[in-house]
Amino acid sequence: SQQGEEDPQALSIQEGENATMNCSYKTSINNLQWYRQNSGRGLVHLILIRSNEREKHSGRLRVTLDTSKKSSSLLITASRAADTASYFCATDLNNTDKLIFGTGTRLQVFP
Amino acid sequence: DSGVTQTPKHLITATGQRVTLRCSPRSGDLSVYWYQQSLDQGLQFLIQYYNGEERAKGNILERFSAQQFPDLHSELNLSSLELGDSALYFCASSPSGTGYDEAFFGQGTRLTVV
């Protein structure tokens, strides 16, 4: 079973627009991570936010974490066609060492 | 380049056969994770090893097994293969594997069972 559920499942936007993806999870966590996957390739780590953090930035990425709602969001600002990929959240499951991934959001950015 | 090497990149085999997938983690990483990704699906956690010992187990079938060797490379063995086992198999490594670290992924092994 999946720990995280991303929403929406798919998102299509124009270049320059912002993209927001949400992740909900089920158990307590130590941290939440976001990864990106280009089609059929390995996943690339984007950002890690710890359970005692509420917001984190990295370049055009902004991640928020609300542990009371068990949810996180990833905002990509000023999107580019090269941002087209699937985005996954991942958490340690119930403070274990398992790194469990959500179902992913497929982002398509049109030039 | 993540520093994680998976071999082979592609594998085509028949139902009922057995295959071995290999993963070399990044230098210094003690933890190895294995994941299965079916077409257009999320990643299913299979198993994690830390410094040679099994650390966590996910939805891994009894037909599948894994191990991590003293040099820290890992192998995933899949036996009695079925058509439904066709998928991308990813290996990832992290320094400590406690859930506090980012994981570095290999490029995956694409397994096709015919």
Notes on the structure:
The complex is a heterodimer of chains A (111) and B (114). Chain A is 0% helix and 58% strand. Chain A is an all-beta fold and 111 residues long. In chain A, the strands form two sheets. In chain A, strands 2, 4, 5, 9, 10 and 11 form a six-stranded mixed sheet that branches. Chain A has a five-stranded antiparallel sheet with strand order 1-3-8-7-6, with no helix packed on it. The radius of gyration of chain A is 13 Å and the shape is globular. In chain B, 0% of the residues lie in helices and 51% in strands. Chain B has strands at 5-7, 10-13, 19-24, 31-37, 43-50, 53-57, 64-68, 74-78, 87-94, 104-105, 109-113. With 114 residues, chain B is mainly β. Chain B has no helices and eleven strands. At the A-B interface, strand 4, strand 5, strand 9 and strand 10 of A face strand 4, strand 5, strand 9 and strand 10 of B.
What's the β-strand tally of chain A?
11
What is the H/E string of chain B? EEEEEEEEEEE
Q: How many strand elements of chain B?
A: 11
Radius of gyration of CA atoms of chain B, rounded to a whole number? 13 Å
Low-confidence runs of chain B: none
The number of helical elements of chain A comes to 0
Mean pLDDT of chain A: 91
Q: Structural class per helix/strand content of chain A?
A: mainly beta
**Sheet bearing the most strands of chain A, described?**
6 strands, mixed
Strand content of chain A: over 45%
Estimate the strand proportion of chain B.
over 45%
Largest sheet of chain B: 7 strands, mixed
The shape of chain A is: globular
Biggest interface, which chains? A-B, 28 and 31 residues
Helical fraction of chain B equals: under 10%
Write the layout of secondary structure elements.
The complex is a heterodimer of chains A (111) and B (114).
Chain A: E1 4-7, E2 10-14, E3 19-25, E4 31-37, E5 43-50, E6 55-58, E7 61-66, E8 71-76, E9 85-92, E10 99-101, E11 105-110
Parallel strand pairs in A: 2-11
Antiparallel strand pairs in A: 1-3, 3-8, 4-5, 4-9, 6-7, 7-8, 9-10, 9-11
Chain B: E1 5-7, E2 10-13, E3 19-24, E4 31-37, E5 43-50, E6 53-57, E7 64-68, E8 74-78, E9 87-94, E10 104-105, E11 109-113
Parallel strand pairs in B: 2-11
Antiparallel strand pairs in B: 1-3, 3-8, 4-5, 4-9, 5-6, 7-8, 9-10, 9-11
